[in-house]
Amino acid sequence: MPNAIEFLFDVGSPTAYLAWHRLKGVAARTGAPLVPVPILLGGVFKATGGMPPGTVAAKGRWMNEDMQRWAARDGVTLAMNPFFPVNTITMMRILAGLQGDARFDAVADTLFAGMWLHGRNMADAEILGTTLAEAGHDAAALMALAQSPEAKQALLANTEAAVARGVFGAPTCFVAGQMHFGQDRIEWVEAAAVG
For the whole model, what pTM was predicted? Predict the structure, then answer.
């Protein structure tokens, strides 16, 4: 039996977007259960003293080029969001509220696409609602879910638990107790999943 892959992510991370696409392929190839865990990357940075890698201009330029190379290699369209960085708290609360729900993957796909395929300002409630509705989701229900105490608490708990486990950024995967940081470590994640 393959090991489960815990995928800790925030839709505001373009590398998490690339990892999401790659991990679905890993799960399909190996039969490893993919367990997505929404976290708030801003909360992780605040707790750990971390900073987005793009705050160093030269590193940011290199990362943008490197991400495009990875996207091209894997056949994923990645359009850098002109509104980046985007406040993702509402989106991540929606996903935290949907953990274990059959709609989770489809909603995550929609949110990632809004951010990294269509380049929308997904922090704008009207744009977020329109994006969800265009994809066939009940936008009003999902926006209400984001405001529920349960979804807020779930996201906070996920984020705090991630920090307690040593997470300092996203995407981060855990497989069989090992932590793997970054979308460029998916081959290691796959190897750990099949044991």
Answer: 0.95
